[in-house]
Amino acid sequence: MTKLSISLGQASDAGIKPENEDFYGVHIPDDAQLESKGIACAIADGMSGSDGGKEASQLSVGQFLSDYYGTPESWTVKQAVNKVMTALNRWLYSQGQEKYGSAKGMVTTFSALVLKSQTAHLFHVGDSRIYRLRGNDLVQLTRDHRIWISNDRDYLSRAFGIDIHLEIDYRATPVEKGDLYVFTTDGVHDFIQDGKIAEIISQENDLQNAADKIIQIAKENDSDDNITCQIVRIDSLPDPDKNEYYEQLTRLPFPPDLQAGNILDGYKILRELNASSRSQVYLAEDTQAEKPRKVVIKTPSVNYEDDPSYLDLFLHEEWVGKRLNSPHLIKVCNVDRKRSFLYTVVEYVQGQSLAQWMIENPNPSLAQVRGTVDQISRGLRAMHRMEMIHQDLKPDNVLIDENKTLKIIDFGSTKIAGLAEIKSIVEHSHIVGTANYSAPEYFKGESGTNRSDIYSLGVIAYEMFTGKLPYGEVSAERAAKKKFIYTPACQHNPTVPEWVDAAIQKAVHPNPEKRYQLLSEFITDLTKPNEDLLNKTSQPLIERNPKVFWQVLALIEVGVIVWLTYLLLNSGG
User: Fold this and answer.
1) Full-prediction pTM beyond 0.85?
2) What is the DSSP string of 223-247?
3) Coil, helix or strand at residue 569
4) pLDDT, tens only, 81-112
5) Which residue of 195, 229, 317, 404 could cross-link 214, Cys pair, CB 3.0 to 4.6 Å?
6) CB of 45 closer than 8 Å to CB of 126
């Protein structure tokens, strides 16, 4: 499989200054992180007049290249780098105040490039620059955060360490093989025209020679600052071969049908828990553990043995589970032995599904529904913090253990923002969950967001109160044309308070922009009445409860008839 690879040319010189306060670096990780995190490059220029400019530039580049690779693989590049840069800026600002008692204590420009899959992600503060040279076309991709007071006086308007708050420029652009990214500090680009930089690089086959030559010409042009140039060329891009990728997925064979007593890599099958057209689930005992324990083994169905999309999702579930940690999410177990077959091992939860509980408890109290929604939301929040969206939340995918703790299961449909940035030859349908609980945007071919999970949670709350679905049965084939008209929960269950119904209605709104933005907002509105929401969602009585409306109307009519009769009798007397 073709991997992302680059060539480098890097040079830096103090120039006429006594010491060099510029700094640069590149990190090319091993195979696993090369795909999930990409290649990171950075350049920094300690601000003139900053007491700790040199220290600031070196720390910024070094810490950035270290900390970025320590962020979760599930995060997008933008999320990960913004977190790292924000933390670095706060640290430099506080150190500048502590060490030098000044806002100019530790200040540096900072520009970074992360190459992931077939996209270049750029992050920038200050007046160091990143250019892209494609063919003979040199384009400046960053803008200088520099304010000119006069023709010969200017100052940095944005930089690392200058303020506790940091505004970061970000852009993402597609990458092509052969693209060159050129990093320079102002000791270079203030003294060499862009056209000359492009000419030097185009004429030199060796990037190191090109970088050295740019440094030399900047000196000859009387550069009065530190001089740094870094050149990155894209030599190859990841473009996985479909057959090779499929072979990787199917390296382990599917297990045979398992029976009680069978041993699978040290896991003794006790009984079958569930079987469907897509998978089999077994209760097993781990006989190789220090202390024998019960686990659940999930095996793929042979019906999908030649389906790369199914296999990709099956493997994906284990990847997700290992990166999550919450008492409200099922734990995926590490398999510390060589596998003979393809399967997943998860913790065994003794209890029942929420779907079963709902059958046995058709009239739950408000406190029970609210408690259930709150626990599920805690699991979802742990996923959303990792930029993961479950996408298949339903009562069957929530377990209740002996301690009444709810746990979300089945991560096979989970969307991971960080992996979505990686180009894949396996395509998946937008509708990966169960239609009755899937948000309407999925049926329009749109991608899911955290609001899509909030929709599913709202449907569960509605169903717990009413035993029904807010929009009736939903067919995946017809959902794109379905009119999602909300039926108030109180029509099915008059005991549901109007303010609770208003919260559920907002959670399951067909338009994701009109739903809750955060799970905590939904929980709050299920806890106490939101008057603003009630005013917005207030409906005429005929829509909220037609039966009561007609009963009231009939009583009014009877009253009118009685009154008219009374008047007629009195007038006749």
Assistant:
1) no
2) --S-EEEEEEEEEE-----HHHHHH
3) helix
4) 999 999 999 999 999 888 887 767 889 999 99
5) 229
6) yes
